[in-house]
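Quick start: load a record and inspect it. Here is DNA polymerase IV:
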Amino acid sequence: MRKQASVLHLDLDAFFASVEQRDKPSLRGKPVVVGGVGGRGVVATASYEARRYGVRSAMSTREARSRCPHAAFLTGRFHAYREASDVVMRLLREVSPLVEPLSLDEAFVDLERAGLPDLEVATVTAYAADLRERVAVATGGLTASIGLGTSKFIAKVASDLEKPDALVVVPPGTERDLLRPMSVSVIPGVGPVTAERLRRAGIQTVADLEAVDLAELLRLVGQAQGTGLHALARAHDDRPVVAEREAKSVSSEGTYETDLTDRRLMEGLLTRQAGEVAARLRKHGLSGRTVTIKVRLHDFTTLNRSTTLPEPTDSTATVARLARALLTDLDTSGGVRLLGVGVSGLADWIQDDLFGESSDTDGADGAPEEDEVLGVDAVEAGVKARRSVYAPGQDVEHDEMGRGWVWGSGRGVVTVRFETAGTPPGPVRSYALDEPALRPWRPAEPTENDMPAADPPA
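Running the structure step on this input writes:
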């Protein structure tokens, strides 16, 4: 723990939903829910207007609709979220060379490397307030909550205290006083299971946890977790801000509207996902030793199975074969709603011809053999057939009306509201799904000349 509040945590407020409200003027000030819009969808982010009705992240879309039926339920536009995130992360790297992104919408910043005249509370507070204003201007109005503290743990807690659009500084020496009244769930790693185990032992607040000695805590939750909880309950956290966070795994998964029961089709989907994972490994010059599959059954039971190779690989055929083999021992007769493939144990080198079999290597383009993907197109065609051509919230463009977004679609009709971030709330028009003047819109891919210059060395 540092002597000064020089660790900053920035968290963009209700990020996905806020981007949608920024880009869709008619939704500003109204409840917005971003995530899966189908019967089995899950909420990714809810605007603060929707949260007043009890809608929360990770809630099923079905429950969210029952709580807030008048909300706008939109699918994600990840190109827009990535663009906004890139703007913020570039701005933070102008502040300090030590920026540790945690996700698209949050990051730690080490102010010890920010070139400030000092790190007194008044100085870092004024600097953080200016940073929040700069983020809002750079992103076209997105708000961020910032926490400042003597450690990453305290800064993260502080940024959550008064959301949205807040700045909270925890002065050095006050960390324990801040934490003691809080629920133990504020500590990273204390999920529902651990919280219930602690509750049964009479431990509900951080103050309760602080009063428990290390030996008793190890008995309650085990060696690995107990040591960390003992330290964090006393606000002890010496983790540095790390500019580059090493990837631990690469994965791909999909959730399906109808339970899958055909084993052949499941193998085909795993093969396709293995191809996506292997392609990402090759793109980043990585390989991995451990292949894992994730299978969520019809009753929401989630199973994970893995196998580890003697040497790392980035071969589509190898990853696909192992994924299919892992599926063999699982009982999927009741139906599967989610499948996923992941590779971990990453390295930056590859063992060529791992099994010494020519049939195990990919073709020149890294694609799986034709017989490995047999049946996948049938699955995807079936999934697409159950979906509309246009998804709610999707960006579209009309030859005469210009840019807009999909309000809804079904029964052969798509309804569009024509507006953008820089216009007033726009008109609504409906068209046949095959209207030739209407098309999906995506921003042009940046060319090499459009890419930002590399950051100078620290």
